[in-house]
Amino acid sequence: MSMSVPAREVWKELRTNPLAKYGVATAVTAISLVLLRKWIAGGVCRSRIRLDGKTVVITGANTGIGKETARDLALRGARVVMACRDMRRGEKAASEVRRSTGNGNVVVRQLDLSSLASVREFASKLSATEDRLDILINNAGVMMCPRSLTEDGFETQLGVNHLAHFLLTMLLLDMLKSSAPSRVVNVSSIAHVGGKINFEDLFYNKTPYDSLVSYRQSKLANLLFSRELARRTRAYGVSAFALHPGVIRTELGRYVETRYPLLSALLRAPALLLMKTPKQGAQTTIYCAVTEGLEMHTGCYFSDCKLKEPAPEGKDDLAAMRLWDFSAKLVGYNEED
After folding, report:
1. Catalytic positions, please?
2. Which parts of the chain span the membrane according to its record (predicted)?
3. Which of 6, 77, 255, 286 has the lowest CB atom count within 10 Å?
4. pLDDT for 201-253, tens place per residue?
5. Which range of residues forms the domain containing residue 26?
6. Do the beta carbons of residue 132 and residue 175 sit within 8 Å?
7. Cα(214)–Cα(197) distance, integer angstroms
8. Does a structural domain hold residue 337?
9. Do 22 and 157 belong to one domain?
10. Is residue 305 a part of any domain in this protein?
11. Is the separation of the CB atoms in 230 and 298 below 8 Å?
């Protein structure tokens, strides 16, 4: 079949006119970028469920995906407790959330996850001042920081990302049980892939410290904790979920930028295109917190608002039970707490 006259003329114009070529190339590039951004943005939580009368605690809620999660849940009518280390920044973020959502029931409480004393104080005050807890979102964390120790002598990444959240969850478990059906949402990462819980040297006192290896260990711990917590609390109506939020433009990567300044500078512009925004990165957290019927998937792993298969190391139930026992001993938790 021969080309129609108009089509031949258009093709001739494209071949001979540089401006036409440029225009087509620009249009194709623009469309490709839009499609790429849409793909990178990932899933969106479509639930319209209201949370009036519900209470939510979010750690690390003053910035990044924690703040966007707080904003979304406040819009749904929840009472939101923003657990933050820096009260000044926390109050500023809470003010912005109140103003943007019209929900005045957003409060800030101090929580320093590098201190178990702070965790215990936060849990004690919350139990004394709140009559229920429907959703606990363990969101705060550090990523690939230089080796350092918490107040209690734990390697910082495992101490902040896992051990402090383990203790916090245990201390608030009675509230979660009495408010059932309730949920615990642990922000893990795809970095759990290839991770290993080094039970013989959890804090790298004997082996050389590698910030990425340590980060992977802490994110694997988040996932294994979710599995074991789900197993232990399913009968009480408490569900637990772990998730990968995506690669996001937040303050979490500040240590990576410090460690690799030249590489970070070179990748800054591409990163704007290839990373999720905090609002996009919060979608799977929100999905796990509010989606109806998710209880049947307690203990599971999610990404882009979908159920995903974790790496084999993330399904090791023996390691999960062992990690639970190690964690309880390290933080000084027993059932009588």
Report:
1. 215
2. none
3. 6
4. 999 999 999 999 999 999 999 999 999 999 999 999 999 999 999 887 554 44
5. 5-39
6. yes
7. 9
8. no
9. no
10. yes
11. yes
Whether 55 contacts 77, CB under 8 Å: no
Q: What is the DSSP letter of 155?
A: B
The per-residue pLDDT of the chain, averaged, comes to 88
For 315-323, the CB contacts below 8 A with 24+ separation are 315/227, 316/224, 317/227, 317/228, 317/231, 319/197, 319/224, 320/224, 320/225, 320/227, 320/228, 320/231, 321/228, 322/197, 322/199, 323/197, 323/199, 323/221, 323/224, 323/225, 323/228
Q: Do 104 and 33 belong together in one domain? A: no
DSSP 251: G
77 and 25 housed in the same domain:
no
**DSSP character for 312?**
G
| Structural domain contains residue 44 | no
Q: What is the DSSP string of 99-127?
A: HHH----EEEEE--TT-HHHHHHHHHHHH
How far apart are alpha carbons 198 and 192 in whole angstroms?
A: 13
What's 281's domain CATH number? 3.40.50.720
Tokens of 201: 């040297």
CB of 184 closer than 8 Å to CB of 228 = no
pTM of the model: 0.85
- Count of domains observed in the chain: 2
Range 169-178 burial, b when 16+ CB lie within 10 A, else e = bbbbbebbee
**Same structural domain, 208 and 83:** yes
Residues 285, 243: contact at Cβ < 8 Å? Answer: yes
In a domain, 336, yes or no: no
